[in-house]
Design goal:
The protein is of the alpha/beta class. Helices cover 43% and strands 15% of the residues. The protein has helices at 16-31, 49-55, 82-87, 98-103, 108-120, 133-137, 141-153, 158-161, 182-200, 202-207, 221-225, 242-249, and strands at 5-9, 39-43, 61-65, 92-95, 124-129, 165-168, 210-213, 232-235. Bound molecules: 2-phosphoglycolic acid.
Length: 252
Protein backbone atom coordinates (compact mmCIF):
# COMPACT_ATOMS: atom_id res chain seq x y z
CA UNK A 1 0.00 0.00 0.00
CA UNK A 2 1.36 3.39 -0.95
CA UNK A 3 1.79 6.05 1.67
CA UNK A 4 0.29 9.52 1.81
CA UNK A 5 3.08 12.00 2.35
CA UNK A 6 3.30 15.74 2.94
CA UNK A 7 6.88 16.92 2.51
CA UNK A 8 8.10 20.45 3.11
CA UNK A 9 10.93 21.88 1.06
CA UNK A 10 12.46 24.84 2.87
CA UNK A 11 14.88 25.53 0.00
CA UNK A 12 17.49 28.08 1.13
CA UNK A 13 15.43 29.46 4.01
CA UNK A 14 15.77 29.41 7.82
CA UNK A 15 18.94 29.61 9.85
CA UNK A 16 19.62 26.84 12.34
CA UNK A 17 17.78 28.46 15.24
CA UNK A 18 14.74 29.14 13.08
CA UNK A 19 14.81 25.58 11.78
CA UNK A 20 14.93 24.12 15.28
CA UNK A 21 12.16 26.39 16.55
CA UNK A 22 10.01 25.33 13.60
CA UNK A 23 10.68 21.65 14.35
CA UNK A 24 9.61 22.07 17.98
CA UNK A 25 6.47 23.93 16.98
CA UNK A 26 5.56 21.38 14.31
CA UNK A 27 6.02 18.45 16.70
CA UNK A 28 3.83 20.17 19.25
CA UNK A 29 1.15 20.79 16.64
CA UNK A 30 1.34 17.17 15.44
CA UNK A 31 1.06 15.85 18.98
CA UNK A 32 -2.03 18.00 19.56
CA UNK A 33 -3.84 16.25 16.71
CA UNK A 34 -4.45 12.57 17.25
CA UNK A 35 -5.48 11.88 13.65
CA UNK A 36 -2.54 12.56 11.38
CA UNK A 37 -3.16 10.44 8.29
CA UNK A 38 0.07 10.94 6.41
CA UNK A 39 3.80 10.83 6.83
CA UNK A 40 5.36 14.28 7.29
CA UNK A 41 8.81 15.24 6.01
CA UNK A 42 10.89 18.34 6.57
CA UNK A 43 13.26 19.10 3.67
CA UNK A 44 15.97 21.12 5.36
CA UNK A 45 19.38 22.53 4.41
CA UNK A 46 22.30 20.11 4.91
CA UNK A 47 23.75 21.84 7.93
CA UNK A 48 20.46 21.57 9.84
CA UNK A 49 19.87 17.88 9.21
CA UNK A 50 21.66 16.33 12.18
CA UNK A 51 20.29 18.93 14.59
CA UNK A 52 16.72 18.46 13.41
CA UNK A 53 17.01 14.66 13.33
CA UNK A 54 18.23 14.77 16.92
CA UNK A 55 15.06 16.58 17.98
CA UNK A 56 12.52 14.36 16.30
CA UNK A 57 10.57 11.96 18.49
CA UNK A 58 7.40 11.72 16.43
CA UNK A 59 7.16 8.46 14.44
CA UNK A 60 5.37 10.17 11.55
CA UNK A 61 7.96 12.91 11.12
CA UNK A 62 11.14 12.50 9.06
CA UNK A 63 13.90 14.66 7.63
CA UNK A 64 15.00 15.01 4.02
CA UNK A 65 18.04 16.61 2.46
CA UNK A 66 17.38 18.76 -0.60
CA UNK A 67 20.24 17.34 -2.64
CA UNK A 68 23.29 15.09 -2.47
CA UNK A 69 26.45 14.71 -4.52
CA UNK A 70 26.74 12.57 -7.65
CA UNK A 71 30.04 11.14 -6.36
CA UNK A 72 30.56 8.82 -3.41
CA UNK A 73 33.47 10.67 -1.76
CA UNK A 74 36.75 12.40 -2.49
CA UNK A 75 38.10 15.72 -3.72
CA UNK A 76 34.83 17.52 -4.50
CA UNK A 77 35.09 20.70 -2.46
CA UNK A 78 31.79 21.90 -1.09
CA UNK A 79 29.83 18.78 -1.96
CA UNK A 80 27.86 16.62 0.48
CA UNK A 81 27.63 12.88 -0.16
CA UNK A 82 24.61 10.61 0.25
CA UNK A 83 26.55 8.74 2.93
CA UNK A 84 27.02 11.97 4.88
CA UNK A 85 23.33 12.78 4.57
CA UNK A 86 22.37 9.31 5.82
CA UNK A 87 24.76 9.65 8.76
CA UNK A 88 22.75 12.64 10.05
CA UNK A 89 19.64 10.50 10.52
CA UNK A 90 17.87 11.87 7.43
CA UNK A 91 15.80 9.19 5.70
CA UNK A 92 14.96 10.98 2.46
CA UNK A 93 16.64 13.13 -0.15
CA UNK A 94 14.90 15.42 -2.64
CA UNK A 95 16.55 14.93 -6.04
CA UNK A 96 15.98 16.51 -9.42
CA UNK A 97 14.17 19.60 -8.20
CA UNK A 98 13.65 21.98 -11.12
CA UNK A 99 15.76 24.61 -9.35
CA UNK A 100 18.66 22.13 -9.26
CA UNK A 101 18.06 21.19 -12.88
CA UNK A 102 17.86 24.75 -14.18
CA UNK A 103 20.23 26.77 -11.91
CA UNK A 104 22.87 24.09 -11.32
CA UNK A 105 22.75 22.21 -14.60
CA UNK A 106 21.68 18.85 -13.20
CA UNK A 107 21.02 16.53 -16.12
CA UNK A 108 19.20 13.20 -16.15
CA UNK A 109 22.60 11.48 -16.27
CA UNK A 110 23.82 13.30 -13.13
CA UNK A 111 20.54 12.59 -11.38
CA UNK A 112 20.79 8.92 -12.20
CA UNK A 113 24.10 8.79 -10.30
CA UNK A 114 22.61 10.68 -7.35
CA UNK A 115 19.67 8.26 -7.18
CA UNK A 116 22.01 5.25 -7.16
CA UNK A 117 24.15 6.74 -4.39
CA UNK A 118 21.11 7.71 -2.33
CA UNK A 119 19.71 4.18 -2.57
CA UNK A 120 23.09 2.60 -1.83
CA UNK A 121 23.17 4.59 1.39
CA UNK A 122 19.64 3.71 2.47
CA UNK A 123 18.07 7.06 1.57
CA UNK A 124 14.72 7.23 -0.20
CA UNK A 125 14.76 9.67 -3.09
CA UNK A 126 11.88 12.09 -3.54
CA UNK A 127 12.45 12.45 -7.26
CA UNK A 128 11.06 15.59 -8.91
CA UNK A 129 9.85 15.74 -12.48
CA UNK A 130 7.83 18.30 -14.39
CA UNK A 131 7.53 20.37 -17.52
CA UNK A 132 8.10 24.08 -18.12
CA UNK A 133 5.33 26.31 -19.42
CA UNK A 134 6.39 26.23 -23.08
CA UNK A 135 6.37 22.44 -22.98
CA UNK A 136 2.84 22.36 -21.58
CA UNK A 137 1.67 24.93 -24.08
CA UNK A 138 3.10 22.74 -26.84
CA UNK A 139 1.25 19.72 -25.39
CA UNK A 140 4.56 17.98 -24.64
CA UNK A 141 4.19 17.59 -20.87
CA UNK A 142 3.71 13.82 -20.90
CA UNK A 143 6.67 13.23 -23.19
CA UNK A 144 8.89 15.45 -21.01
CA UNK A 145 7.91 13.76 -17.78
CA UNK A 146 8.17 10.26 -19.26
CA UNK A 147 11.68 11.01 -20.54
CA UNK A 148 12.79 12.39 -17.17
CA UNK A 149 11.56 9.23 -15.43
CA UNK A 150 12.97 6.84 -18.04
CA UNK A 151 16.40 8.45 -18.19
CA UNK A 152 17.04 8.69 -14.46
CA UNK A 153 15.07 5.80 -12.97
CA UNK A 154 14.21 3.04 -15.40
CA UNK A 155 17.52 1.21 -15.10
CA UNK A 156 16.68 0.48 -11.45
CA UNK A 157 15.55 -2.97 -10.37
CA UNK A 158 11.88 -3.21 -9.38
CA UNK A 159 12.99 -3.55 -5.77
CA UNK A 160 14.98 -0.32 -5.90
CA UNK A 161 12.29 1.51 -7.84
CA UNK A 162 9.94 0.59 -5.01
CA UNK A 163 11.96 2.90 -2.74
CA UNK A 164 11.38 5.95 -4.95
CA UNK A 165 8.80 8.64 -4.23
CA UNK A 166 7.91 10.77 -7.23
CA UNK A 167 6.98 14.43 -7.06
CA UNK A 168 5.25 15.91 -10.09
CA UNK A 169 6.08 19.59 -10.03
CA UNK A 170 5.04 21.55 -13.11
CA UNK A 171 7.74 24.21 -13.24
CA UNK A 172 5.20 26.91 -14.14
CA UNK A 173 3.44 26.28 -10.82
CA UNK A 174 6.50 26.44 -8.54
CA UNK A 175 6.52 29.54 -6.38
CA UNK A 176 4.21 31.30 -8.82
CA UNK A 177 0.94 31.07 -6.94
CA UNK A 178 -0.39 29.30 -10.03
CA UNK A 179 -1.43 25.76 -9.15
CA UNK A 180 -2.18 22.94 -11.56
CA UNK A 181 -5.90 22.30 -11.47
CA UNK A 182 -6.91 19.12 -9.65
CA UNK A 183 -7.77 17.69 -13.09
CA UNK A 184 -4.35 18.55 -14.55
CA UNK A 185 -2.66 17.02 -11.52
CA UNK A 186 -4.78 13.85 -11.66
CA UNK A 187 -4.24 13.44 -15.41
CA UNK A 188 -0.47 13.68 -15.08
CA UNK A 189 -0.30 11.50 -11.97
CA UNK A 190 -2.37 8.82 -13.71
CA UNK A 191 -0.05 9.05 -16.71
CA UNK A 192 3.00 8.68 -14.45
CA UNK A 193 1.48 5.65 -12.76
CA UNK A 194 0.68 4.10 -16.13
CA UNK A 195 4.26 4.72 -17.26
CA UNK A 196 5.56 2.97 -14.14
CA UNK A 197 3.14 0.08 -14.66
CA UNK A 198 4.38 -0.32 -18.23
CA UNK A 199 7.91 -0.85 -16.95
CA UNK A 200 7.55 -2.50 -13.53
CA UNK A 201 3.96 -3.81 -13.50
CA UNK A 202 0.74 -2.77 -11.77
CA UNK A 203 1.78 -3.71 -8.24
CA UNK A 204 4.89 -1.54 -8.20
CA UNK A 205 2.95 1.30 -9.85
CA UNK A 206 0.13 1.03 -7.31
CA UNK A 207 2.60 1.10 -4.44
CA UNK A 208 4.45 4.23 -5.64
CA UNK A 209 3.60 7.47 -3.84
CA UNK A 210 3.28 10.33 -6.34
CA UNK A 211 3.25 13.78 -4.74
CA UNK A 212 2.11 17.02 -6.33
CA UNK A 213 4.20 20.18 -5.94
CA UNK A 214 3.73 23.74 -7.13
CA UNK A 215 1.96 26.41 -5.09
CA UNK A 216 0.09 23.83 -3.03
CA UNK A 217 -1.35 25.42 0.09
CA UNK A 218 -3.99 25.14 2.79
CA UNK A 219 -6.79 26.21 0.46
CA UNK A 220 -6.10 23.86 -2.45
CA UNK A 221 -4.53 20.82 -0.73
CA UNK A 222 -7.75 19.00 0.05
CA UNK A 223 -8.99 19.15 -3.51
CA UNK A 224 -5.60 18.15 -4.93
CA UNK A 225 -5.16 15.26 -2.48
CA UNK A 226 -8.68 13.95 -3.09
CA UNK A 227 -7.61 12.75 -6.54
CA UNK A 228 -7.05 8.98 -6.66
CA UNK A 229 -3.49 9.26 -7.99
CA UNK A 230 -2.31 12.22 -5.89
CA UNK A 231 -0.70 10.80 -2.76
CA UNK A 232 0.40 14.02 -1.11
CA UNK A 233 2.43 17.12 -1.73
CA UNK A 234 5.89 18.60 -1.92
CA UNK A 235 5.39 22.01 -0.41
CA UNK A 236 7.71 24.98 -0.74
CA UNK A 237 6.49 28.39 0.42
CA UNK A 238 3.63 27.04 2.52
CA UNK A 239 5.98 24.72 4.46
CA UNK A 240 7.87 27.58 6.07
CA UNK A 241 5.32 28.36 8.78
CA UNK A 242 3.67 25.76 10.98
CA UNK A 243 0.33 27.60 10.73
CA UNK A 244 0.38 27.20 6.95
CA UNK A 245 1.93 23.72 6.85
CA UNK A 246 -0.35 22.02 9.42
CA UNK A 247 -3.61 22.53 7.47
CA UNK A 248 -1.96 20.86 4.45
CA UNK A 249 -0.99 17.88 6.61
CA UNK A 250 -4.53 17.79 7.94
CA UNK A 251 -5.97 17.83 4.43
CA UNK A 252 -5.62 14.02 4.65
P1 LIG B 1 6.10 26.06 -3.89
O1 LIG B 1 7.37 25.15 -4.14
O2 LIG B 1 5.15 25.27 -3.03
O3 LIG B 1 6.63 27.28 -3.19
O4 LIG B 1 5.50 26.37 -5.22
C1 LIG B 1 7.24 23.77 -4.36
C2 LIG B 1 8.59 23.16 -4.63
O5 LIG B 1 9.43 23.81 -5.28
O6 LIG B 1 8.87 22.04 -4.19
Amino acid sequence: MRKNIVAGNWKMNKNLQEGLAFTDALQLALSNHDKINCEVIIGAPFIHLAHISGKINDKKLHVAAQNCADKASGAYTGEVSAEMVASTGAKYVILGHSERRSYYGETDAILKEKVLLALANGLKPIFCIGEVLEEREAGKQEEVVRTQIENALFDLSAEDFGKIILAYEPVWAIGTGKTATPQQAQEMHAFIRKTIAGKYGETVADDTSILYGGSANASNAKELFSNPDVDGGLIGGASLEVEKFMPIIQAF
